[in-house]
Amino acid sequence: MVPNRAVQPARHVLVVDDDAHLREQIVGYLQEHGFVLHEAGDAASMEAILAQEAVDLIILDLMLPGEDGLSICRRLAGSGGPAILMMSAMAGEVDRVLGLELGADDYLPKPCSPRELLARVRAIIRRVDEARAGAPGPAKGYQFLGFTVSPQRRQVRAPNGTTILLTAGEFGLLKALLDQPERILSREDLIEQSGAGEGEVAGRAIDVQISRLRRKLHSYVEEEIIRTIRGAGYMLDARVSRI
Q1: Residue 3: inside a domain, yes or no?
Q2: pLDDT at position 131, please?
Q3: Would you say residue 228 has pLDDT above 50?
Q4: In the predicted model, is pLDDT for residue 99 greater than 80?
């Protein structure tokens, strides 16, 4: 008899872009690959959908009528809500870095191939799913320098009890570092172990998200928790206990 396997529910993706033709293309392609799609042309329509649907990922255009994508990203990132994949025809590095700094989990320039978009969406969704499910193995959580981390809840508590809000990308990186404390992990290691996408943008995203994660942790303790090892990668410089 074939054992029963849990059926993974379809993931909900919200496309926010004022280009109706592009929205139609993205929606059609991702629907063909098993995602449930929603679409909006501006921030107000987006908010109406978010009030009714449990969205896992927002594909967010930078240039929107009314409230622009950067403002939306700043408002939503770290709120415990959907992950964010930002897209823009403005492909300059400043725009990419700014979007990542504001909390986007990844950034794609327009135009991009549908296959690359699908790969990035799957990578982000995988990080979200892994964070919700928790890490395999006996450890249900981690403690270090007074911090408590719960993978199942995707929750980090500071030494003073405050809940620290992390994006899916930041949490994936923190978990990868916690799994191998006091060991240098290259950007390639972190991309693989955190489930980030591949390529130049993903590599830059690692640097930006590590910087954001470092700032959030260091606002509660004076110790240097995440060290940059020049030419080698990053290391969590702390003793970690599994709980």
Answers
A1: no
A2: 61
A3: yes
A4: no
pTM for this predicted structure? 0.58
How far apart, in whole angstroms, are the C-alpha atoms of residue 135 and residue 172?
Answer: 10
End-to-end CA distance of the chain: 36
| H or E element that contains 72 | helix 69-76
Q: Cα 183 to chain center, whole Å?
A: 23
Quote the CA–CA distance of 33 and 35 in Å, as a whole number: 6
Residue 93's domain comprises 12-133
- Backbone φ and ψ of 57, nearest 5°: -145, 135
At a CB cut-off of 8 Å and minimum separation 6, what does 137 contact? none
Q: What is the pLDDT of residues 171-181, one digit of tens each?
A: 888 988 998 88
Taking a C-beta distance cutoff of 8 angstroms, is the pair 105, 85 a contact? yes
Per-residue confidence band for 130, with pLDDT thresholds at 50, 70 and 90: low
Q: CATH number, domain at 46?
A: 3.40.50.2300
Among 105, 165, 178, 167, which Cα is nearest to 135's?
178
Angle formed by the axes of helices 93-101 and 69-76, to 10°?
A: 30
DSSP 181: T
Length of the chain: 243
State the total domains in the chain: 2
In a domain, 227, yes or no: yes
> Does 204 have pLDDT greater than 60?
yes
Q: What is the rounded average pLDDT of the residues 49-73?
A: 90
